[in-house]
Structures are given as structure tokens and as C-alpha cells.
Amino acid sequence: MTHQIQSQFKQAMRRLAANVSLVSCNVNGKRAGIAATAVCSLTIEPPSTVVCINQQASVHPGLGIDDPYCLNLLKGGQEDISNAFGGITRCDDKFAFGNWNQNSDGVPYLSDAQANIFCTVKSIVGHGTHSIIIGNVERVLINELGSPLIYFDGGYL
Predict the structure, then answer these.
(1) CB 20 within 8 Å of CB 151
(2) How confident is the model over 11-33, as pLDDT tens digits?
(3) Cβ atoms within 10 A of the Cβ of 117, count?
(4) Phi and psi (nearest 5°) for 92?
(5) CA pair distance 34, 26, nearest whole angstrom
């Protein structure tokens, strides 16, 4: 693929509006999390999700087969949390943003997200720089309905 096609593809994908989620898990006994927009449902039978993670991301080592994780669906007004998990803040410091709890597996979850979807990794497919993580849904918490936090062309809507 030429550099020109890569650049054009990146520009085109910035025009694809997406809900912002946080992927949170444990990596070697420590909390880890990143902001992600490449998140979607896969099937209802069984309830499952797909999330695409860069293999260099801090959460990647915590997402092996049978590892638990949480998808935290952000709402409007949580831009500061998204920014912290989007790379501005490092390590455990990012968990100072928002109200965090842990489930019985020790997986951190944002208690004031629109929803928390607790999953277990069932399949991993590598492609280029990323891994496609397929997770079966184990539990869901639904909070007060709000407008979703949408990322579009490098900013929030």
C-alpha cells in the first residue's frame, strides 16, 4: 500500500463518527485502560462484542484468551475521561478521572458510564498492527440514559 493511500484512508476514516468507549482490564495485576472507537456488537446468540486493539496498547497484554475486560460506553460530558485514556495521561493516573469500581474479577469499570459490558475474551485475530478481540458478554450494567460521546474528525460532537 502506498503512503498516499494510507494517508487518504486515514482522512476518510476520520469522517466515520463513532461512540467512544473505554476498554479496561488488568495487566499483571495492575489496572489498564484505553479509549477506543473500534467497538461494536457481534452477535446476540451468544451475546458478544468486537474491539480492535493496537498490539502496542497498554491493555493488549491483558486481553488473552479467557481474560476478562470491560467496555465502558461513555456519554456526553465525559471528554476529560476520554482524553485521559486516549494517551494524554499515563498508567494508573488515568483512573483519577471518573468514578471507578472493580467487579469480582478485579476488572475496573467506570460506574458513571452509560453502560458497562463485562466480557471474556473468546477469540483473537491478528491483522497488521492490531488484534481483533472477540468477547462473550458475561454481565451488563445499564445506567442513566444520556447522549453518547461521539468522536469525529479529531474532536467530539
Answers:
(1) yes
(2) 998 889 999 999 999 999 999 99
(3) 24
(4) -70, -15
(5) 12
